[in-house]
UniProtKB/TrEMBL annotation:
GO terms for molecular function: DNA binding; DNA-binding transcription factor activity. The lineage of its organism: Archaea, Methanobacteriati, Methanobacteriota, candidate division MSBL1. This is Uncharacterized protein. CDD domains: HTH_ARSR. Residues 6-48 form the HTH arsR-type domain. It comes from candidate division MSBL1 archaeon SCGC-AAA259B11.
Length: 551
């Protein structure tokens, strides 16, 4: 271990300190101390908040005990740590150590020093470590430096100190620089035995392997740098494969500035933004009710004609008292004329249209996204959201007129309809909002089911499937079980069967392979559809073949 590293550990054991304070005490530059501290953080020995302190990890706990017992600069500096690690496998004589590559003079000098320090004893079999805490610390250090495999479906990620001669494609933090994020870890992360890596693989592997706040922060920076190209659905699927969904959920919550279930994994927001600024990214600012109302009034002043805007996102929840802040204003307009008028008013307030947007927003197919530094972003939809939900007359009749800001008339869509809109997105924040609405018990589930069926008829895009997925996720992650779940699942199964049978005739076995439903449910639904005359059955073969009747 480096002498400066031990001095830093000894100093912060007594008194947690800032980088500048450590640099002054040790007579080193701040950049040098910052580099050493980052390496200690990667080795699970320190953690950074406003000050540097010993981490709450197994390795750091052992280090604290050793600092209380020894002058570690006489034990762990230079070749002495290597010789001690060589003794972990059992007692060795000087000649044994020389055969492992240590110089003769180094061996004898180190053994004498370590014996004088009281951490070695000379036995008949040779020298052995006599301090149990030191032995456990060295074993922990050695484990962290050796290959650490993660496995999933025949694929493997290994973490090693030296990649010389190792097969594998760089992934996780070792691949960040390939994607324009200059970060060079002190270990090598390699991927083996799988398919070609995608950018989503690199991020998920990094989330899986992250061991401290700095590494998790780099995952956040990587996401922010590439949020316009990352596919959220792929990220979730890959996180499930590697069993790190909770870590991904935490990362997305931190980026979205929602409640994080494991805050100890993340830097304070101010410190994260300071680090992220070096990479040209930052967390999106959130806005309070007062600031939002002021901005809405200003836009209303700029409008030349009356515009009805239906609020469906965070602003709606803020005005209902269910949230405190939001990053953007989501509105649905009735027609193109209102859209042109609103965009013109926003342009007059120095808003500019954003053309590069992240994948989850592209799927929503907004008519326009407009941004201004220090102000909430506007996501504007005209009549349709995500090409699958229409602003129906029934939705408008259920909405409440909230206020009129000069020429801007604001309507709050009902909680039932907000839930439906949020069910067709891939945004983790919208899932949290859906859970919030469900817990508040403000959703009329029967009306929701009726509206889902209406939207299916209007668009032919079947948003019912997305809503069923969200309801299943709410049950799994939040223990929320809406009363329409079984009815919606039955309705979705019926639609899924018709869609598959319109493509080509299938047997029950073929339908079971295509659909994630039990065979008996498929059979019962097919009997119903046959009775209704919507499908026909060919019973001439060994297995019945089902086909959809032409409309």
């Amino acid at each position: 271990m480096h002498r400066v590293s031990l001095k830093i550990l000894k100093e912060i054991d007594r008194n947690p300190s800032r980088i500048s304070e450590l640099a002054e005490k040790l007579g080193k530059s701040q950049s040098w101390i910052s580099t050493v501290v980052s390496k200690l953080e990667e080795k699970n020995l320190v953690e950074k908040n406003r000050k540097i302190k010993l981490a709450k990890t197994y390795e750091a706990t052992l280090m604290r005990e050793l600092l209380d017992s020894y002058n570690l600069e006489k034990i762990l500096v230079g070749k002495k740590e290597g010789i001690l690690k060589a003794l972990l496998s059992g007692a060795k004589k000087p000649g044994d150590l020389e055969s492992e590559g240590f110089a003769k003079s180094t061996v004898y000098n180190a053994l004498n020093d370590l014996k004088s320090a009281g951490v070695l004893e000379d036995t008949r079999g040779g020298y052995r470590i006599s301090d149990e805490t030191l032995e456990r610390f060295l074993e922990a250090r050695k484990r962290s430096e050796e290959e650490t495999p993660y496995k999933a479906n025949g694929e493997k990620i290994i973490i090693i100190i030296d990649a010389g001669g190792e097969d594998g494609e760089p992934t996780a933090f070792s691949a960040f620089s390939r994607y324009g994020v200059d970060y060079y870890p002190n270990k090598t992360y390699l991927y083996r035995d799988g398919k070609d890596l995608e950018i989503e693989d690199v991020l998920i592997h990094a989330v899986l392997c992250a061991k401290n706040k700095k590494q998790m922060a780099m995952c956040g920076i990587f996401f922010l740098r590439h949020r316009n190209t990352l596919d959220i659905q792929k990220l979730w699927k890959k996180s499930e494969k590697w069993n790190c969904e909770k870590y991904l959920a935490n990362l997305l919550a931190f980026i979205d500035q929602r409640e994080v279930k494991n805050p100890d994994l993340f830097l304070p927001v101010e410190e994260f933004n300071s680090l992220a600024s070096n990479y040209g990214v930052h967390l999106q600012e959130k806005h309070s009710k007062e600031r939002l109302l002021t901005g809405l009034e200003r836009i209303g002043d700029n409008l030349k004609n009356k515009v009805d805007a239906y609020l469906l996102g965070g602003v709606n929840l803020i005005l209902r008292g269910l949230k405190d802040t939001t990053k953007d204003i989501d509105v649905v307009l009735e027609n193109q004329k209102g859209f042109r008028d609103l965009v013109q008013a926003l342009n007059g307030d120095n808003y500019e249209e954003k053309h590069e947007i992240e994948q989850s927003y592209k799927r929503l197919e907004p008519s326009a996204i407009l941004e201004k530094q220090g102000s909430p972003r506007w996501d504007i939809f005209v009549e349709v959201v995500a090409n699958c939900l229409h602003l129906s007359e029934e939705m408008k009749s259920r909405s409440e007129k909230h206020t009129e800001k000069n020429n801007l008339r604001l309507y709050l869509l009902s909680p039932t309809d907000i839930f439906l809109f949020k069910s067709v997105t891939d945004r983790e924040g919208d899932l949290e909002d859906a859970a919030l609405l469900a817990r508040q018990e403000e959703i009329d589930w029967d009306i929701l089911l009726d509206e889902i069926k209406r939207q299916d008829r209007l668009t032919g895009r079947y948003p019912s499937f997305a809503t069923l997925d969200i309801i299943d996720i709410l049950k799994e992650r939040h223990n929320i079980d809406p009363p329409i779940r079984e009815r919606l699942a039955s309705y979705c199964l019926e639609n899924a069967l018709i869609l598959h049978l319109e493509e080509e005739p299938k047997t029950i076995r073929g339908l079971r392979e295509a659909l994630d439903f039990p065979e008996h449910q498929i059979y019962n639904k097919l009997k119903k559809l046959e009775k209704e005359g919507r499908i026909e059955v060919d019973r001439a073969g060994k297995l019945n073949t089902y086909r959809a009747k032409p409309l």
